[in-house]
Prior knowledge:
The chain has helices at 51-63, 85-92, 94-97, 109-126, 138-155, 173-180, 198-204, 227-236, 328-364, 386-390, 395-404, 432-451, 455-458, 470-475, and strands at residues 130-132, 163-167, 184-188, 209-215, 240-245, 264-267, 287-289, 301-305, 308-312, 380-382, 411-412, 422-424. With 485 residues, it is an alpha/beta fold. It has two domains: 95-340, Type I PLP-dependent aspartate aminotransferase-like (Major domain) (Aspartate Aminotransferase, domain 2); 346-475, Aspartate Aminotransferase, domain 1, CATH 3.90.1150.10. Strand 8 (301-305) and strand 9 (308-312) form a beta hairpin. The protein is globular.
Amino acid sequence: MNRGPQSLLFEASRPGRRCVRTAGADRSAAIVGLPTSELRQKPPALPEVGELDLVRHFTRLSQKNFSITTEFYPLGSCTMKYNPAINEKIASEPAWAGLHPLQPECDLQGALQVMYELQQDLGESTGLPGVTLHPAAGAHGELTALMVLRGWLEDQNQPQRRTILIPESAHGTNPASCTLAGFKVKALKAGPDGMTDMDDLMANLGDDTAGLMITNPSALGLFEVNIAEICRLVHEAGGKVYMDGANFNAIVGVTRPGDFGVDMMHLNLHKTFSTPHGGGGPGAGPICVTPELAPYLPEGVVEKNADGYHLARPERSIGRIRAFHGNFLVLLRAYTYIRRLGAEGLLRVAQNAVLNANYLRVKLNKAWRVPFDGLCMHEFVGRPTKEMRDAGVHTIDVAKRLIDLGIHPPTVYFPLVVNEAIMVEPTETESRETLDEFVDAMLQIAEEAKRGDEILHQAPQKMPVTRVDEARAVKKPILRYSPEN
Length: 485
């Protein structure tokens, strides 16, 4: 971590000393124009709009949207935290943004160096040194890791191991990833404390166990206190332990999954390591594995030798799982974030995320029900009290009312093990003043619920789109625009 991101800005396209160019790579070739038959004969009928009117139009449109730069986003597992502007400055530099993945390696030494050092950083942070940056997002990382596991099982001549155990408190993508990878899923119960039920785990381990997928910290915002024992039991049964790293933000710099027995995991760079998340992407879901599983990683792992940096294919590689080498500019943002904070800064990220979540948990527990009311990690799960529910107020009413109060709703109705769940994750980037504003809003809603205010069933009232009929929207969705709508 001794080199800053800006020191590499002009190395991205630096030719290597061994670069050999072909005639087809002549960059001075003339630009070919369009045929006359393809050119427009008349100017397009564009509206005549003044620049000021145009700017006001798009500014007003932008003001109708929620944004992390204008409102608080206590948005559960998605970690909608602020992304430092330096990330965007670095990623927008032409030396990076102008690269093409089909350029020869000798033209990409700076970019490959970034990828190599990011691999090293992620391996050190997780205690799992085998790293690939190939996967495009978190669920894609899950699938990739399970394919790695399947490759390893085939080499071990263990075809009967096709069952993956998944606790109820895991993320919802885990079962889908297992099915896509050709495994069967068996759910494990959560105990009264929200932890994985150890008796149920031991009862379901057997000769068919391929592994365990566990989210830690869990979707309940709890750290599995028995994680080392869980890993030992799965290993003794002949399986491997996969950890969903979507909540790594709470433990980065504090503990390393590889040290307590995890064999493989993915990381959401667009969560823990501060790259943009929204609009369907782009994301990045690198996976980190033990040395035993590293030979099975997808091709495209960056290696370093005397000649520079190179994309390599591990010995027992499962092959490609997507085109090219990951979403490079997302990787670059994560690299910038890590270099800027360093090890001590990443530790403070986790500490502040946990502090903020526990601050809100304690402040809200008198007015709201927190089923697992102990020390939480980066998030906690609450729900309306029985008194509120008896008065006809449900989680959806709370979410809609928060919009009118200028706060984006948290994740609702997840995890499924908590009825009427409200998952609150403030992240480490919010001030105490912002957290207090959220507390005031939640306490106001609690008072409105006790009074039976009809506004809770009508909110939001201040938005361009008011309360919709969810049942009708599901049965009769409007799939395209028409003047009648």
